[in-house]
Amino acid sequence: MTPMTTGHSPRAEANRRHILDVALTELLRDPDASMDQIARAAGVVRRTVYGHFPSREALISTLVDGAVEAVAAADAAGREGIDDLAQAVAGSVLAVWKVADRYRILVALAQRSVTMEGIIERLAPVRQASTELLQRGLDEGVFVSPLPAPALAYVHEQMMFAVMEAVNHGLLDAQEAGRSAAVTVLTAAGVPASLATALVAKLSD
Q: Annotated DNA-binding ranges (predicted)?
């Protein structure tokens, strides 16, 4: 007798992953893509999609979770092994933007269903790592700000969202956005603009 396929079987998980990959592509192409559209693009019936995700909001929420995981990995990789604190911040922003640029439409879309509060809650571990890095910089005089490290980390996070929105609205070229964000974040932390620009240009080469 053939074993019953469960929601945790390798096949079911592969189907779920496929649906998520296709859903991300479809939503980036058309933010208003319906569950029917996503099912057709994935080559499955609508019931299969709903079997994994009970609603469009649940699907988007799962995609946001994946985006946050990717951002956390990029943040860690961008500053790994870098002793210079300003360079570590710049490296983190540049690495995060490569991920954020892919998900920026999704983030805008998620704000309709997940809410910004939900996204901010998911980013808490990334913000904590940023806070610790900024605190070291403030303690050592590398960074200067009237804001305490936790507030400065929050401001940096909001800057990234603002840059995403600027690109989405055609106010900033996506190719330049990562470098612009990195320079802006560094200057907000008190790094002279000329130094921040030179540092980011060096890392971007």
A: 34-53
